[in-house]
């Protein structure tokens, strides 16, 4: 059986990794005033420039049911079965639209609510790819992935809450307080929702490294096979310092990726996170 691994562009993987892991993607749409474009065509830099000029945040448009139906149908001309990883249902309606579309294909499409975002989704899709290479059946892959969803550690350090405020995910009072006090918060994903974590002060490198230390301490049972270092914008020395730190922790595969426009629309510039499974070493147990 030929199985396809699929996700939305919110998976935030490079083209090279998408090819290596044979992951197909369908893009979100971004609306910048009277202009629209697909995630990937609209870059984060374009998004930031639009916000700078207008003071407004672009809108993101979830993929609708018909678009998913057409997408799945096109994949099934080449594959026998599709396993699709969707942005958390608590963040977007994409999962529900994909689920409804999947019902048209008589069990040939499974849609997984990742309860995550960005490369938190990639963790699950890459794991599915490894299981696929081992010859697992679709139902076995789906069950194995779902068993790890609650252990998907996805969190980020933010320079500013301004984008969260513009997107309606942060109150005006919290935004003003954070800016006045110079606070730089951690955002974590729990039960599929974004929520505030610790708050830091200081230059970006100090803040990010403190966030990394706190995250590794709080989520201290990692599967050290793989970790993602994902950022919207960040100085090279900050990214490299984080890479060196997670390698020192013992992670064997460290992938550095940049957030696409859809995810950047929520977090803004100068955002960096580390993402990994926190359920022990699975490298030799699959």
Describe this structure in words.
39% of the residues lie in helices and 26% in strands. It is α/β, with parallel strands linked by helices and 286 residues long. It is built from eleven helices and 13 strands. A six-stranded mixed β-sheet has the order 10-9-8-13-11-12.
Oligomer: single chain
- Percentage of residues in helical conformation: 25-40%
Number of DSSP helical runs: 11
Overall geometric form: globular
Based on CA atoms alone, the radius of gyration comes out at: 19 Å
**Termini separation:** 20 Å
The low-pLDDT segments are 161-182
Indicate the mean pLDDT. 89
Compile the SSE list and pairings.
Layout: E1 3-8, H1 15-20, E2 23-26, E3 29-32, E4 35-38, H2 44-54, E5 59-61, H3 65-75, E6 81-86, H4 94-102, E7 109-113, H5 119-133, H6 138-146, E8 152-158, H7 162-166, H8 172-181, E9 184-190, E10 193-200, H9 204-218, E11 226-231, H10 236-249, E12 253-258, H11 261-267, E13 271-277
Parallel strand pairs: 1-2, 1-6, 6-7, 11-12
Antiparallel strand pairs: 3-4, 3-5, 8-9, 8-13, 9-10, 11-13
Helix pairs in contact: 2-11, 3-4, 5-6, 9-10
Question: What brief labels describe this structure?
Answer:
six-stranded mixed β-sheet; 286 residues; 39% helix; globular; four-stranded parallel β-sheet; alpha/beta; 26% strand
